[in-house]
Specification:
The complex is a heterodimer. By secondary structure, chain A is mainly alpha-helical. Chain A is built from seven helices and one strand, in the order H-H-H-H-H-H-H-E. Helix content of chain A is 73%, strand content 1%. Chain B has seven helices and eight strands, in the order H-H-E-E-E-H-E-H-E-H-E-E-E-H-H. The C terminus of chain B is likely disordered. Chain B is of the alpha/beta class. The chains are: A mainly alpha, B alpha/beta.
Amino acid sequence: MPAVLQVAALACKAVIAVLLLAAGGAKLADLPGFASTVRLFVPTPALRSRRASVLLAVGIAAGELVAGAVSLSVPKAGWVNLAVLMICVAFLATWTVGYVRHRGRSCRCFGALSARGFDRAGIARAAALVVAALVATAPVPTRTIELGLGAQLALLAGGALIGCAAFSAARAVGRQPLPRQA
Amino acid sequence: MMMRIPLYLVIAQWALLGALGILVIVLFRQLGRLLNGTAKAAELGPVTGSRAAALSYVRPGEQAPHQLRPGGGQPLLLAFVDPTCPSCEQLVLTLDQLRAAGELAGTDVLLLISDPVSYLQISDAFSGTGLEIGRPADPAGLEYYRVTATPLLVAVDAAGTVTAAGSAIRSAEVRRYVQACLGTMQAPAAAEAVAMTGEGAA
């Protein structure tokens, strides 16, 4: 495999993992806000209750954090690439449905850090993520992803730092009234 | 002997560094806004002491628009809220509690939403409230209220004058607005209630 393609595959993997960590951390900082977005997509009235939607929001944020952390620190686990690809496909589906049904509403994909509403550019970004996740599934030589325990722990610590920084930033931004939707 | 660093480790380090850099920029931008961001908060809500503008709104499930004409002899609490805004849900719950306790007696309360009416179903607070809900039918008059963010609570006295406006969600804060529109609060205290803008929204 050419070196450029190896770099592309590994870069896509690392960037998506870091994105997932940042998104998960930021969502945890604004759970009520993200839960209200989750409610827009829940078809069952029973799951629309405040408690259920917050639990769902916690599950999604925690899922992103776990997927991001494992993808970042255990690059040899090939199944994680497929799991991340599924997550990105879910993002694309969510953005498409959001654009059709809730155009202009805030997705809160990065908690209070993201005030962007569901729009075409968001669908394009989600599609780009899917392509990147597909590239990340390309097989690479084992020597390029063989990490020792120390390196894995260092990456995990770096990932935790990103999650905490995103949480703090989203918490700081979230302490303001919500901008009125169009 | 030279140690060989795996390619992935190098790339992942740069990815982490890049993300951290972006987040640091976000934090510093927010810090900058907090340090000199009072001007933006002041733009929320109508000017205290001005005459409240009339509004036309439609109730959920109805077609015919209703007219809101402040100054008809009845104090009015106008809440600009949305079902997709958690702080707004909190405000609606607080207003419901005060109403149940009889603390809103003698005051008309109107919740004005900008979200589609179908969104009322996604919020327990909105679908279960006994307060009147409306959606502006005409943009005329809305500009006066400067609803740049939600929740926005506006207290209007019986003469149609805005006595307090700002963001509030807690019982104590909302009580101040009720007192402001009933005219039982002195002017400095009403101004203090307005100064609380931004503190209430979490």
